[in-house]
Specification:
The complex is a heterodimer. Chain A is mainly alpha-helical. Chain A has two domains: 41 residues; 128 residues, no CATH class. Chain A contains twelve helices and no strands. The longest helix of chain A is centred in the first third of the chain and has 28 residues. Chain B is mainly alpha-helical. Chain B has a domain of 95 residues: Cytochrome c-like domain (Cytochrome Bc1 Complex, Chain D, domain 2). In chain B, 35% of the residues lie in helices and 2% in strands. Chain B has seven helices and two strands, in the order H-E-E-H-H-H-H-H-H. Chain B has a two-stranded antiparallel ribbon with strand order 1-2. The chains are: A mainly alpha, B mainly alpha. At the A-B interface, helix 6 of A face helix 2 of B.
């Protein structure tokens, strides 16, 4: 059955260049793995994916810059439930109309607001900050323990259209949950848009941890944010 | 995992024809613990008359709370001192009356609670934004503002004068202390000697 030439072929199953291919594979596969993961990592951090610094189109081009920065309206005027509920609250059309029934009342740009007021159909605002559903997040506890609005939401008073300033990844949450003293403010400064951390922030932070009764022991437990 | 089968507050959902995920409660629904059986507390009225008294003790905490809430919800139009010259008025909103005019100094305290609850003239109701306790706190603080603009110089503690907190008669009116962005600083009310 078997001829001599068959046996000779068996002996040369791997040709000489197989050595080069083997070396290339040993080096190349890890390089490819590193390269591909690197691409994924860079992509996940890119603003294309995280939408950081990308203004979000809204049905009405609402400007925090105008309402907060120019008019000095307090965050809580519209986000009424931020101090006592998980959800900060998107204001109902009634809140817009409180002023805009009298000022800018014929502006074409506000037509969707007037339509909503007349028909009762809500304005379909587009969510800017959307945490994954497996994350438990509560605004009230953060605000009441001294985390400033701007710490997470950035200088909203300078945003004509609102955008995210943080990618909201877990490591970012943990950065503060591990070292809250680096970020806490006095409670009276929580909604301030021009508060700047003092040079002795760590001393202040340590004091605020005690004063605001922050339980640091459980801050990095899994169930604190995943429940 | 990232988007699970539940709705976030106010999220859109196609189940009902109006696309609202959060449903509007039927009329006359009473949420647990929110039965509004204390007429004076919830309406500022006793029968058809405006209440002349507070349903709770007027404490410094109440006044501080009232100041904070006033600065958030009222000062935008009424101004931080209640003169009716807030930023939204400067932007063209019809000017509300000053809290320091005689009619409003004589108004029973329930008037302010009633106006916050139901609105008045071009002012919308703030019932959905200001909780009932806070309406009374704001009313109390409006009273404090009214007193502040009509207090005789003899009421001021001489020590306070020297600290520069009270201004001598005839000095130009100054608003309450501000941060650099024009918001009031979070300083508590100065101690008063006649409460």
């Amino acid at each position: 059955m078997h001829s001599r030439s068959d046996a000779a072929d068996m002996g040369q199953l791997f040709r000489k260049r197989a050595n080069a291919i083997a070396r290339l594979t040993v080096v190349g596969i890890p390089l490819i793995i590193i390269g591909v993961s690197g691409c994924f990592y860079a992509f996940a951090r890119s603003s294309f994916w995280t939408k950081v610094d990308a203004p979000v189109e809204q049905p009405v081009p609402f400007s925090h810059k105008h309402h907060v920065g120019d008019d000095g309206i307090d965050c809580r005027y519209c986000h009424t439930s931020v101090e006592n509920s998980a959800f900060a609250g998107v204001p109902p059309t009634e809140t817009c109309m409180t002023c805009h029934s009298q000022i800018w009342k014929d502006a074409p740009v506000l037509q969707p607001v007037r339509d909503s007021w007349q028909t009762g159909a809500p304005i379909k605002w587009v969510r800017v900050h959307d945490l994954p559903d497996y994350v438990y997040f509560d605004h009230s506890i953060h605000v009441n323990k001294g985390v400033g609005c701007a710490t997470c939401h950035g200088q909203v008073n300078e945003m004509p259209l609102t955008f995210k300033t943080q990618e909201l990844y877990m490591r970012w949450c943990l950065n503060c949950h591990r070292h809250p003293q680096q970020f806490l403010r006095p409670k009276s400064e929580v909604v301030s848009m021009d508060y700047r951390a003092p040079s002795d922030q760590l001393t202040l932070g340590q004091r605020l941890l005690k004063q605001n009764n922050v339980h640091t022991a459980g801050l990095t437990d899994c169930y604190t944010c995943h429940r | 995992m990232v988007d699970q089968q539940h709705l976030k507050p106010l999220a859109e959902d196609g189940f009902f024809s109006d696309d609202r995920g959060s449903r509007v409660p039927p009329a006359h629904t009473v949420a647990r613990g929110q039965l509004r059986d204390d007429e004076q507390f919830y309406t500022g009225k006793i029968g058809s008359d405006l209440a002349a008294t507070f349903p709770m003790p007027v404490t410094r905490e109440l006044l501080n709370r009232g100041r904070e809430r006033f600065d958030i919800y009222c000062a935008v139009c009424h101004g931080y001192t209640g003169n009716g010259d807030g930023m939204i008025v400067q932007r063209g909103f019809p000017q509300p009356p000053s809290f320091h005019e005689q009619r409003l100094r004589d108004a029973p305290i329930g008037h302010f609670v009633d106006v916050i609850t139901n609105g008045y003239g071009v002012m919308y109701s703030y019932a959905s934004r200001v909780a009932p306790e806070d309406r009374w706190a704001i009313a109390a603080y409006i009273r404090a503002l009214q007193l502040s603009q009509h207090a005789p110089a003899s009421d001021a503690d001489p020590a306070t004068w020297q600290n520069g907190r009270a201004r001598p008669p005839g000095a130009p009116k100054s608003d309450s202390p501000r941060n650099s962005d024009g918001r009031p600083s979070g300083r508590p009310l100065p101690p008063s000697t006649n409460d």
